[in-house]
Amino acid sequence: MSFLLMLTACSDYEINPFLPDSPGADAEEPAEEPAEEPDEEPVPDETDTGETDTGEPADPMAPVAMCSVSPNPVKPPFEAANWSGADSYDPNGGEIVDYNWELISVPEGSAVNMPPGAAVRTGFAPDLAGDYIGQLTVTNDSGETDSCETTLASIPDQALWVEMYWTHSNDDMDLHLLAPGGTLETGRDCYWANCVSTGLEWGGAGASDNPSLDLDDIEGVGPENINIPSPADGTYTIVVHDYQGSTPDYNGDNTVTVNVYVDGVLVWTDANTIAGENSFTTFAEIQWPEGTVD
Question: pLDDT at position 4, please?
Answer without folding.
Answer: 36
